[in-house]
Amino acid sequence: MNIFEQHESEVRGYCRSFPTVFASAKGAWMTDANGRRYLDFFSGAGVLNYGHNPDCLKQALLAYLVRDGITHTLDMYSEAKAAFIERFQQTILEPRKLAYKLQFPGPTGTNAVEAALKLARKVTGRETVVSFTNAFHGMSLGALSVTGNGFKRAGAGIPLTHAAFMPFDGYMGSDTDTLDYLESVLQDNGSGTELPAAVILETVQAEGGVNVASVDWLRRLREITQQHGIVLIVDDVQVGCGRTGHFFSFEEAGIVPDIVTLSKSLSGYGLPLALVLIRPDLDQWAPGEHNGTFRGHCPAFVTATAALGYWCGTTLQEAIGQKSLLVQESLEHMLNRHGIDGSVRGRGLIHGVEFTDASLASRISQACFERGLVIETAGIDDQVLKLLPSLTIKEDELAHGLDTIDQGLRSALSQAS
């Protein structure tokens, strides 16, 4: 029994799928303690959009540490925070004509979601929050209440209340606009649903199975929430920071949410950092009304500032678009070549392959790991093979990973026959 099995809680998860001890990583590659290299199509569940140890971020961090730059400030002012705010405004918000106040709630995505829910309820005076089927927003109680996964919800141990679930785009088939139901519920005094404080959604449901909301559906949802005075919260924790091509996942739809939550790849280096973007008139917090010990994590501000250099110009965005087409076409060709019943969906560099045989995705993931590729599954039954390569992955590395998936699929099919 190794040290992890002997001493670590049974709650550990990913190590069961990827049973090796990792020692180092660079770019799109991870290396274990035995020196074996693995191509990374997981990217820390979307934390490492720019790959492992990118030099420009590493050098900025090392320089900051060497000069004894302050590491922890709560919400006191710091040079590191000032530099991040200034660059975020200049590089991200101003070019997109977005006016948001910035709140640093704590180090993780679930902290950002909790703050967003709390603020929406405060400013509207209402309690209910509408979420969607197969949503995932975090593991703390507020975020869990608007998460659809029954297994995760059961872990709360108490009733999860003040949330109402509606069908996500495509949940009831391609011929049904699920927003007809939401709009009917909001307009009908006999529906039994009170006017909600907020609607929270992921434009691409990552953990839920790479379910992609269409541009038209997102635009209509924005119209509905505006019509009824409902705060629209976009959870961009996993699919923001360029994962779908644009920096924000909602940009393609041309909508402007009232509140946006960011984390995961915000620091660009795997350092914990979260951010809530708030429409200025909704910023009604009293000083100290919401706080967190690690909301002033200066090393993360340093790497986050450096990471925004990737967004000066359109080079990265254009490269993501090209790689997205390669992934989509390769996966569709793979299914057709093997005669497999499944579907490919995604945007940018988050893609999923859903199989009718729900066990196939997990078997492919295992076979890929044996061949040196780290790739996870998603969906309520782990029926979706989920691709999350780094945005900066080289095209030959991407092609190698796709070829390994094909080999993994062949292996999984041969074992079943």
Automatic annotation (TrEMBL):
Pfam families: Aminotran_3. The keyword Transferase applies. Pathway: Amine and polyamine biosynthesis; ectoine biosynthesis; L-ectoine from L-aspartate 4-semialdehyde: step 1/3. Its cofactor is pyridoxal 5'-phosphate. It is an enzyme of class 2 (transferase). Its EC number is 2.6.1.76. PROSITE patterns: AA_TRANSFER_CLASS_3. Keywords: Aminotransferase, Pyridoxal phosphate, Transferase. InterPro entries: Aminotrans_3 (IPR005814), Aminotrans_3_PPA_site (IPR049704), Dat (IPR004637), Ectoine_EctB (IPR012773), PyrdxlP-dep_Trfase (IPR015424), PyrdxlP-dep_Trfase_major (IPR015421), PyrdxlP-dep_Trfase_small (IPR015422). The keyword Transferase applies. SUPFAM superfamilies: PLP-dependent transferases. Belongs to the class-III pyridoxal-phosphate-dependent aminotransferase family. This is Diaminobutyrate--2-oxoglutarate transaminase. It comes from Pigmentiphaga daeguensis.
